[in-house]
Amino acid sequence: MTDIIETNLPTSAAVSPGSRVVPRRKRLTGFHDLPFDELKERLVEMGAPAYRAQQMFDWAYGKLVTSYDEMTNVPAPIREGFGETTPLQTMKLVRELVTDNGDTYKLLYQTFDGQLVETVLMLYPDRATVCVSCQVGCAVECAFCATGLGGLTRNLTAGEIVQQTVDATRRARQLDRQLTNLVMMGMGEPLQNYAETMKFINIIHDPRGLNFGARRITISTSGIIPRIDALADEPYQVNLAVSLHAPNDELRSRLVPINGRYPVEDLLAACDRFTQKTGRRISFEYALMNGINNSDEIARELGQLLRGRLCHVNVIPFNPVDVLKFERPNAEMIERFAEIVREYGIPTTVRYSRGVEIAAACGQLRARHQQMEKAAS
Ligand code: SF4
Fold first, then answer.
1. Ligand 1: distance of its center to the CA of 251 in Å?
2. Catalytic: 250?
3. Distance of alpha carbon 22 from alpha carbon 64, whole angstroms
4. Ligand 1 atom, smallest distance to 188 CA
5. DSSP state letter for 18
6. How do residues 197-228 score in pLDDT, each as one tens digit?
7. In the CATH hierarchy, which fold is given to the domain comprising 5-10+91-376?
8. pLDDT over threshold 50, residue 15
9. How far does the centroid of ligand 1 lie from the alpha carbon of residue 208, in Å?
10. Spatial contact of 125 and 109, defined as CB atoms under 8 Å apart
11. Element (H or E) spanning 200, and its range?
C-alpha cells in the first residue's frame, strides 16, 4: 500500500460542480483551441503583426505559462483582448491525488460548464506518460467501465484536451521529468470525437508549439471501423490501440455493446487494413475479468484469432469498480492467461494500471467526486 496525498482545490462559485451555468451545447473557445494559423489570423484582425503568434506560442507551449499577464513581450492591449474573449485556461483543477510513492498523479478538472474531466500522469523510470480524456462520459457504455455508466454528456473540445497535455507537461517539468508519451485512454471514445481529436493532435504536434511527436501518441478505440480506416489515411503517425476484451462476438457484445455494430471479424479486417497502410503494429487491449473472459479456452481462442497478425496484446487485470460486479483474477490466473496467448507467437504483456488505490480506473474519480459533492450539499 502506498501513501495517497489528496488535495481538494477550491472550486469557483461561477462553476460549482454539477451546476451548468452555461448551456452545455454552447462552447467556449480558449487559447488552446487555436491552431497556429488561426491565432495568426486573429492577431492580424486585431491589427497586430503576425509574428506575435510565435511569441504567444512560445509562452503557452514553451514556457508553459498559465496567464496572459506572464507574456511580457506581448503588448498589453493584445493580452487584455485575448483575456476577455479567449481564456488561456478554460478548465480548473479541482482535485489532485498522488500515489504509487509519488509516481502517479490523478487530476480532476472542472470545465467552464461544470463538467468533470480526469487526467492521469504516470512516471516510470524511462518515460512519463499522460492519459487524457476526450469526452465527458461515453456513449459506448462498456459493461465494465465507470465512465460508460452515465452515457455521454458531451465531447471535449480540442483545447480542453490540449490543456490536459500542457498541464501534464508542466507538472512533469516541475518534477524534473519530460513528458514522453500520451495515450488517449481516459474518459471517452476518441474516434467518436474524431474532428476534435485530430485538431488536438494537430495542435500538440506543431513544431512551433509543444512539438509532441505523433509516434509518441496512442489513440485507443473500442473499434469504430470507419474511423479506423480514416485514421490510417491521416498524415499523423499515431499508434492505435484496440480494446478487444473478448475473442468472439457473443462475449464481446456483452462487454462492449458497440460490437453489435462492428463485429470482431470486421474489426480485425479494419485492423489489418490499418497495419497494411501504415506499417504500424496494433495493440490489442484486454481487460481481464475473473470468470468472464479469462478461461484457458478463451485464451486459446484469442491466440488463434490474432496469430500471424502484426500486433501486441496488453492484458490489463481489471480494476475493481465500486458499482460494478466484475472482479480481478489472481496473479497466477493472470500470468497463465498471458502465457497461453504467448504460445501462439503473440507478444503479450501484463500491464497493471496505475493508481488502483485512487480510483484510477476510467471514470471512477469523477464518479466519487460527484458522490462527495452530493453528500455535502
Ligand atoms: S471503456 Fe472506453 S469506450 Fe468503453 S465506455 Fe469506458 S470510456 Fe467508453
1. 16
2. no
3. 28
4. 7
5. T
6. 999 999 999 999 999 999 999 999 999 999 99
7. TIM Barrel (3.20.20)
8. no
9. 33
10. no
11. helix 194-205
Cell 448551456 maps to which residue? 23
- Report the distance separating Cα 136 and Cα 134, nearest Å: 7
Which of 95-99, 191-195, 269-273, 372-376 is predicted with the least confidence, judged by mean pLDDT?
A: 372-376
DSSP sequence for 49-85: -TTHHHHHHIIIIIS--SSGGG-TTS-HHHHHHHHHH
Active-site annotation holder among 118, 189, 196, 285: 118
Question: Residue 36: how many CB atoms within 10 A of its CB?
Answer: 18
Q: 17-52 pLDDT, tens per residue?
A: 333 334 445 789 999 999 999 999 999 999 999 999
For the CA of 147, the nearest atom of ligand 1: 6
Strand intervals (E) in the chain: 5-8, 92-99, 104-110, 116-123, 128-131, 135-137, 152-155, 181-184, 217-221, 239-243, 282-288, 311-317, 348-350
Q: Which residue is listed with cell 475493481? A: 320
> What distance in angstroms lies between residue 77's CA and the mean position of ligand 1's atoms?
44
118 is a catalytic site residue: yes
Partners of residue 316 on adjacent β-strands: 287
Q: Which residue has the higher pLDDT, 78 or 357?
A: 78
SS (H, E, C) 110-152: ECCCCCEEEEEEEECCCCEEEECCCEEECCCCCCCCCHHHHCE
190 pocket-lining for ligand 1 (C-beta < 6 Å): no
324 and 287 in contact (C-beta within 8 Å)? no
pLDDT of the residue at 56? 98
Among candidate residues 131, 138, 271, 362, the one labeled active-site is 362
pLDDT in tens, 162-184: 999 999 999 999 999 999 999 99
134 CB near ligand 1 (under 6 Å): no
